[in-house]
Specification:
Blueprint: H1 6-12, H2 31-56, H3 58-72, H4 78-96, H5 99-102, H6 107-114, H7 122-125, H8 130-133, H9 144-156
Helix pairs in contact: 3-4, 3-9, 4-9
Length: about 170
């Protein structure tokens, strides 16, 4: 077809140019993005819960740090050590439990309260008995290492601080 005009043939045929599909929109995202968003939300939630737990257990870490300082001070007299341990345990218990529960306890009642969550009642009937009357005596004979281990055990068993404390 040597004498055919290509422009006339193109106009006569019902052909159209190639149409590309529209570009994908930004919404809704692909399933992979939904999965990534869900994982990020879970990660942030987990980090918030961990930070909250760490904040609620801060008092326990501080008490264990103070106990470690008392353990390393070998020059501390027995009466001073008993007094410091008693005060440390009292402060830790006041952080962990309601003030009405433990603030006014003394003697055997205090030792029974310290035995809470511990098997074999080590404060009431074991080496922890020294904390009952020892801090109030000028000199007291007790097993220093056993008492320090017992106090560490007691502090490690403390629960997380309550979320809402009533101030009195």
């Amino acid at each position: 077809m040597p004498g055919v005009d290509p422009a006339a043939v193109a106009e006569a045929l019902p052909l159209r140019d190639i149409h590309l599909p529209p570009a994908p929109g930004l919404w809704p995202p692909a399933p992979g993005w939904w999965l990534l968003i869900a994982l990020l939300v879970l990660l942030i939630l987990g980090l918030c819960l961990l930070a909250r737990r760490a904040r609620r257990l801060r008092y326990r870490r501080q008490a264990l740090r103070q106990l470690a300082e008392l353990e390393t001070d070998m020059q501390l007299p027995s009466a001073a050590l008993l007094s410091a341990l008693s005060a440390l345990l009292r402060r830790a218990m006041l952080c962990a439990f309601d003030r009405e529960e433990c603030a006014a306890l003394t003697g055997e009642a205090w030792l029974r309260f310290l035995d809470r969550d511990l098997r074999d009642a080590p404060f009431s009937s074991g080496s922890g008995r020294a904390l009952g009357q020892g801090p109030y005596q000028p000199e007291c004979d007790f097993d220093r290492a056993a008492l320090l281990v017992l106090c560490r055990r007691r502090l490690k068993k403390l629960p997380a601080a309550p979320r809402h404390r009533r101030r009195s």
